[in-house]
Amino acid sequence: MSEADTTVRSRSFALTLVAALLGAATLLAPSASANPPSPQGGCDPLTASSGDCLLPFPNDWYTRADAGTPTGRRVAFTSDMLPRGSAAPAVDPTAWNRSDGFSPGSTLLVRVPGLDLGATGAAPLTDIGSSLDRAAPIVLLDTTTGERWPYWAELDANASSKDRQALLIHPARNLTEGHHYAVALRDLKDASGHRLPAPDSFTKVAGRQLPKHDALAARQRQLQPALRALRSRTRTDDLYLAWDFTVASARSLTGDLFSIRDDAFRQLGSKSPEFAVTAVKDLTPDQDARIAREVTGTVTVPGYLSRPGGPPGSTLNRDRDGIPRRLPDNLQLATFRCEIPRTAFTGRPSRPALYGHGLLGSANEVGAGNVKAMASEHDFTFCATDWIGMAQADTPVVLGALADLNRFPAVPERTEQGMLNAMFLGRALIHRDGLGSAPAFRTADGRPLIDTAHGLTYDGNSQGGILGGALVAASKDVRRGVLGVTGMNYGLLLNRSADFAPFQQVLDVAYPDRLRQQIVLQLYQMVWDRGETNGYAQTLAESGDRVLMHIAYGDHQVANAAADVEARTLGARLVTPALTAGRSPDRVPYWGIRRAGELPYRGGSAMVVWDSGTPTPPLTNTPPTEPAYGKDPHSDPRSTAAARQQKATFLRTGTVIDVCGRAPCRSLPTP
Known about the structure:
single chain, alpha/beta, eleven-stranded mixed beta sheet, four-stranded antiparallel beta sheet
């Protein structure tokens, strides 16, 4: 089959899928070269004439004053502003307008026709430190503190055309919650080294005071404080463009989950959650040399979703003030699966731990070989529940959400219920009247198989790492967690993940214009923050809870760049040497991540890089794929005995030990 035939077949599949998801009888998607719809009222006048509503993004032009929020602002999108999919209805902005600012991990988006980043000298991924140079052409300023903020800049490598190519400015560590930022683009150049002229509208706004009747007068008044802040801190001659935005507060980001958590545990009081064991499977050594018993069952959890039982597609049930509320008698039966190692039957009781599964998977991943090996080698009983919202049953909803923004809030909001389910499973694991009191978790003579005296820990991989940081931040019982092959911020991750290819087909049909896709990804992230670690990273960093990040160098599925942003945000220390000399393409490898120093390290969160010899990942916002970038090392750390030893010691003691002989850690998977 030719490349053209393959492309047509893929696009046909995506068209059919979107049509089915949206219930459309027929679907004629515009071609990738079609002009996007013209913006309607409310677009930023700095760029509205170009046809790109919501650019630059994020942008306080799309907020309003609100004395009732911690930031004093509230997002104020209208339906006309938000991009609608090819076959989707107009977008209801309610879910976005609950925010009092933008995502702390927002990629800054703007369109600069003719821009050449090399000629301009903008900081690339390989030289983040240069973003803070005095003469850096892009300035990201925290006006709350006066601090320059590090970033890297790139042009969207996936753009449909040079004319429709977004400039992406990625914060190198998450922006501070509740703070205000100003952005300056200055002395921008084209490929010939010629300075790009500023848009006429910005020249007027940044110039002399405009008369009140001028169409740009309101924009000038709104932008003046940000321009003053920039002029007081940095050179602002040769400005091409400037704008400002507010980052959402901790309350805005975590409020929904913490609200349902506090309400549910207040109802629970000092009791154990109700549970039922539905099956017990005793295994002979011939059947499994590591696991002696598998137990499945359900835990009863208060349900805060809008539909009884909380099926896929449900959103949080809210009162008139937007606060999540439980419907009377709405219960969630969270299924679980536990793996009890043979060591628990022959020696001391095992330590209880929660396990978080991977992308759109299920609790059955707790039965994977690497998890069984960890349980057997280090005497852990791992229990898992489906991470609803991002579980296998949610796949159609996720696909539908990529085609229609209206459907997207169901993904993070059901995920929040999934986190509450995991917290209730965790409480049942460590409560004296919980799972450990049931015969399924005891020997024939009544001896307990799990030790509830040492508390609860967490281990998750891939999606389980991406969501797991939020769970550790929210849980009242988990105080240490391992985030395997992790990162955060799906808005940053998706373009860089090999896993996203089939989902990209849906996005391409719904939003053929790749510039518009970048806006859509950042709109997703504003709501997704409420259901993944990106929105909880600062809370986790300040909570005293500790996490160990295990990273696969060159990971095809979870980008290393996102893991580095997470480590900087958490203040996680890098275990060194991380890579052999010359392995990293960076001018300063792991810039901005402090070193752990001599091991053992007991100071807090840490990051360990495991290297399988995989080629360095792309330096653009594109995924590494086989065979060009070698075999995917995504599963290698968890399959390496030394990595499991390091994880187990951390979960038991909070200490990061040396398992690599003071050398860079190599992934050496064992059966």
